[in-house]
Amino acid sequence: MTWANAKRCSAVAKSTGLLCKNPALANEDGLCRSHARSTGPRTSEGKLRVAARQWQHGKRSKPALVEKAASAAVAKALQAILAAELAGQPLTEEMLKRYCVTMEKWKQAREARLAFDAKIGAPG
To answer: Which of 7, 41, 113, 120 lies 20 to 30 angstroms, CA to CA, from 82?
Structure first.
């Protein structure tokens, strides 16, 4: 099929009422590439790419807020340990347990955020 005998676009100009003269694409709507509209991504990979393009900064995203809260808890636990050391008091087992649990939660939250970022291809 050549350009001369190809099926034509069915779009009509509002101002003149004339049909578009471009060849139609091989899809069901019969419009040319100028008048055909995107139907959006159809595959899961395409949808993830679109989600990644919508990423602006991520400072208020759920994973970022979880990591921020976990980092604050880690800092608070470290501050308590340092305060105890500076006060001349021995470190208690409870303090060390709290620090270890807090650190483990922080690591899990960070791993979850990095996995999410890698999944959607967001900057990390």
So the answer is: 113
Residues 28 and 50 in one domain: no
pLDDT in tens, 77-120: 888 887 887 787 777 888 778 778 877 887 888 788 778 777 77
Q: Are residues 49 and 32 in the same domain?
A: no
On whether both 49 and 4 belong to a single domain, the answer is no
111 shares a domain with 50: yes
Which residues does 101 contact at the CB level (< 8 Å), separation at least 6? Answer: none
* Whole-angstrom distance, CA of residue 81 vs CA of residue 20: 75
- Digit-coded pLDDT (tens) for 6-55: 888 888 888 899 998 888 888 777 888 888 887 788 899 988 888 877 76
Q: Which residues contact 20 (CB under 8 A, 6 or more apart)?
A: 8, 9, 10, 11, 12, 13, 31, 32, 34, 35
- The residue segments making up the domain with residue 31 are 1-37
Exposed, middle or buried, 122 (CB in 10 Å: 0-12/13-18/19+)?
buried
